[in-house]
From TrEMBL:
Low complexity: compositionally biased ranges: 75-88
InterPro entries xref list: DUF2996 (IPR021374)
PANTHER family recorded: DUF2996 FAMILY PROTEIN
Protein name: DUF2996 domain-containing protein
Bias-annotated ranges (Basic and acidic residues): 90-101
Segments for region (Disordered): 1-101
């Protein structure tokens, strides 16, 4: 009986189990053009299922979780209500009104010069003005007490007027009298209904009174 011929003796190499299995495995896992099918063949891009499982690998959740978005730096906070810009510099205080000066100072420095100018503007060029404390030149009073007066005259003294300040205060009682070469007229009140006495009012009131006497302008 003839012994069966050995593959090695015949110069042939017996196929290994790998060669036998390779075509089968390749055929089973080869992709088809019909439908995409997932395979069990591991690739370099496929993570290890155990490594990607957070239950098995605690660090998996850290690796797979997207990092939180970084918030943009908040804008500079508004300054607290108490830190408001410095208030504007306080306005300069107004200088005191001329009417607030001491009585005699106001009369000499402000009232007489203003009155001189106003009467001259009415055509009186030889006006003489003075401010003095003397007796009231009113008929029938005899030796009356002295008080501060503004005395004005022109036409060589033929026309004269007096403004009286018995309270030594421009806001107090005031009187007026005039004469034209004769004895002074009766004392009358002057600017008694005005709530506020100012330099302009004292000048305007006297000019109006003299004009009513028909002493100014072409009168």
């Amino acid at each position: 009986m003839v012994d069966p011929t050995n593959h090695n003796q015949a110069g042939e190499v017996a196929p290994s189990t790998v060669d036998k299995q390779a075509p089968t495995v390749a055929e089973e896992n080869a992709p088809t053009t019909k439908e995409p099918v997932a395979t069990d063949i591991p690739t370099a891009n496929t993570p290890d299922p155990k490594a990607a499982n957070p239950k098995v690998n605690p660090d998996a959740a850290k690796e797979t979780t997207a990092p939180p978005k970084q918030e943009k730096p908040a804008a500079a906070k508004a300054a607290p209500a108490g830190d408001k810009p410095a208030a504007k510099a306080a306005k300069k205080e107004k200088p005191p009104a001329v009417e607030d000066k001491p009585f005699v100072e106001f009369m000499q420095q402000d009232y007489l010069p203003a009155l001189q100018t106003a009467i001259k503007e009415q055509g009186i060029q030889d006006l003489q003005l003075s401010f003095a404390k003397q007796k009231l030149p009113v008929a029938g009073l005899g030796s009356a007490e002295e008080c501060w007066q503004v005395i004005g005259s022109w036409q060589n003294g033929l026309r004269q007027f007096n403004v009286y300040f018995p309270d030594e205060d421009i806001t107090g009682k005031k009187g007026f009298s005039c004469n034209e070469g004769k004895r002074p007229s009766t004392l009358e009140s002057f600017l008694i209904d005005e709530r506020k006495i100012t330099l302009d009012l004292l000048v305007f009131g006297l000019v109006q009174r003299l004009n009513g006497q028909k002493w100014l302008g072409r009168n």
